[in-house]
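User: Just a sanity check before I run the rest of the batch. Below are the structure tokens for the first item. I only need the designed sequence back.
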């Protein structure tokens, strides 16, 4: 075999290999394209729904450090969504509507609680400026948080239909921002209120008598003795303190989900946040009622800080005695007479 013949055969074999290679690539191309084809919707949807049916993890992959973001649908999401749209929503409605119904009925039956001995026109200091600031900081921020929080839970079904998409979207966006930032003011007010009032809210035997007599709220002319805070106010204090602490902690975890742990932990915090907020809303609405239209002279305590002496004697008789004894001991003489109103 001479060189010319060898060269011809080599070229022929090389040509055959090139042709086979091209044909092979062409034959396999559809299979490779099918493997990564994003338009294969039927196969993709079947696999997704199969996983969803068994409450399994539906995940992909991401290029960011947060690996939890790779989960499109996570285990427990369906049950969490059901609880959020049923239990939390129902409790939120009951917390507000239930309180309004109960208080309206109470007002129609009992009426406004008046000062039986009539207003004396003599004033006594009940709350200092620091105490009132702590109260209004916490109260004002709670109202903002309650309204914006209710919009997050109920807005889409109860506000959107009559407000319209554009207005609802604007209110919801700004409401979410307000909710995130006003929460810090609520925490500050909660800490301040706890610091200035904890010493006056320790339960004692006097509270049992107050509870036994219904706090004097159910029957005219009944005035059980009480210190600076009666048993009902102590219930509100501890409900606000413990409930507010729970809201603060769970809210913090939702603001910084990287600290919350797993997705299941975050879902748990969200449910606790919603349930506690609903219960606390009921309690706070009752507190607002009795401190405003429900009782004569009550609003002055947090308005000017001074209350009528007869009001104080009927609702906080032991506290009045403590104040007058303290003033007498400080002055080294008889108790000072509270000053008349201007």
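Assistant: Here's the designed sequence for the first item:
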């Amino acid at each position: 075999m001479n060189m010319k013949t060898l060269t011809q055969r080599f070229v022929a074999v090389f040509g055959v290999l090139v042709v086979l290679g091209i044909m092979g690539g062409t034959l396999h191309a559809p299979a490779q394209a099918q493997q990564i084809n994003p338009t294969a919707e039927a196969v993709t949807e079947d696999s997704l729904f199969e996983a969803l049916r068994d409450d399994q993890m539906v995940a992909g992959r991401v290029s960011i450090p947060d690996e939890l973001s790779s989960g499109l649908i996570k285990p427990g999401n369906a049950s969490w969504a059901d609880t959020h749209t049923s239990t939390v929503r129902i409790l939120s409605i009951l917390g507000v509507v239930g309180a309004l119904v109960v208080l309206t009925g109470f007002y129609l039956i009992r009426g406004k609680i008046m000062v039986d001995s009539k207003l004396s026109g003599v004033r006594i200091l009940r709350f200092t400026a620091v105490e009132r600031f702590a109260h209004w900081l916490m109260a004002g921020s709670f109202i903002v948080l309650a309204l914006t929080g209710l919009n997050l839970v109920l807005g889409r079904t109860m506000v959107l239909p009559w407000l319209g998409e554009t207005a609802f979207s604007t209110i919801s966006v700004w409401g979410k921002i307000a909710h995130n930032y006003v929460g810090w003011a609520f925490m500050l007010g909660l800490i301040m209120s706890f610091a200035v009032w904890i010493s006056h809210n320790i339960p004692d035997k006097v509270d049992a008598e107050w509870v036994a007599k219904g706090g004097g709220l159910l029957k005219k002319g009944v005035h059980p003795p009480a210190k600076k805070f009666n048993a009902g106010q102590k219930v509100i204090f501890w409900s606000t303190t413990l409930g507010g602490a729970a809201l603060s902690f769970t809210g913090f975890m939702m603001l910084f989900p990287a600290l919350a742990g797993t997705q299941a932990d975050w879902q748990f915090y969200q449910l606790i946040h919603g349930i506690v907020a609903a219960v606390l809303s009921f309690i706070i609405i009752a507190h607002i009622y009795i401190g405003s239209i429900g009782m004569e002279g009550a609003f002055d305590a947090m308005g000017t800080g001074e209350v009528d002496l007869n009001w104080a004697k009927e609702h906080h008789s032991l506290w009045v005695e403590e104040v007058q004894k303290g003033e007498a001991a400080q002055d080294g003489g008889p108790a000072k007479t509270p000053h008349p109103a201007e």
